[in-house]
Amino acid sequence: MATFTKEQVAFIAWLAQGNYIDVCIELCPALGKMTGYESCNGHFQKRTLFKLKAQGFICESVHYITGIRYLRCSISQRGLDWLSTHTEQSHQAQPCMEPIRKAADESNWSRYTELMGGVFCK
Predict the structure, then answer these.
(1) What CATH number is given to the structural domain containing 38?
(2) Would you say 93 and 86 are in contact if contact means Cβ atoms under 8 Å apart?
(3) Most exposed residue of 5, 32, 113, 122, measured as fewest CB within 10 angstroms of its CB?
(4) Cβ contacts of 17 within 8 Å, gap of 6 or more
């Protein structure tokens, strides 16, 4: 199994939320144009999509947008399974993060700053 950067993992998580990328496959001036990634918060790169496809993380289906043929790329079950496993492993590997998350969720900024190793000033 390939290793992924933090940005690539974030992109996989974005796809897992029901998002997708459309790639124009019609012989027209838009051939190869990609759309749908605009709502992705991270930096999208074509090679990330290529890598995910090579790993079997992408499902493809043909869609027509204004009469032009596009290939819709969404996450596959294999990608969802990997993300689930990866998320569980990262939570187990960083149990010390729980108090930090809890302090942030409760807006307890003095405790949060203390846990992060800083000094809190009012």
Answers:
(1) 1.10.10
(2) no
(3) 122
(4) none
**Residue 80 structural domain:** 6-93
SS3 5: coil
SS3 73: strand
Is residue 115, in this structure, part of any structural domain at all? no
Give the integer Cα–Cα distance in Å for 59 and 3.
Answer: 20
Q: Is residue 104 part of a domain?
A: no
Q: How many structural domains comprise the chain? A: 1
Tens-digit pLDDT profile for residues 6-64: 889 999 999 999 999 999 999 999 999 999 999 888 788 899 999 999 999 999 999 99
